[in-house]
Amino acid sequence: MAEEKKNDNNGKDLKEYGQVTLNHKIHLITVIGEIEGHECLPSNTKTTKYEHILPQLAAIEDSREIEGVLVLLNTVGGDVEAGLAIAEMIASLSKPTVSLVLGGSHSIGVPIAVSTDYSFIVETGTMVIHPVRMSGTVIGAPQTYDYFKQMQDRILGFISSHCGAGRERLEQLMLDTGMLTKDLGTILVGKQAVEEGIINQVGGISEALKKIHSMI
To answer: What is the pLDDT of residue 79?
Structure first.
């Protein structure tokens, strides 16, 4: 009976939140589509809502049953504050954590990908590193640019402190003018992200599960 209830809860969590508890007490979290923050995105947009993720991470930390967390990412980025909040929560978990970048982990998805204890990326997975963007009307005042710079520094500081890439190199990648047409930034594919020290290893779901089992 207890097993049936667990399976029912898993089905509901997977459908509503993209989360499920695997065997061996590993909790799976997916970060898919656009990371939704303080403003609701259109209903036809695939989103990961931070108000769903944060309580789950708190419950995971408090749970005696869950022994590890696997984070699957395929995101275009999204709300900077929400993405950083998720990354900080994952980084502060006391339980073993592993991330796996699938299709891509772009923009604010990069801090989430490196927030775990160990990270993987599939061979065709991509990571896009670029400066902070903001939609809507931007007031052209010095304070606005200072705010952008401060936010960018926070992102660079977090990424560099949670992976093998140095802050100076990350800033070079972020401000590169030679790769993205009409824009700044860098696209890293699979092993390039590993060579830059951002991701630990190229691998898929089997490698990720083996790693978290060994950490547990």
So the answer is: 84
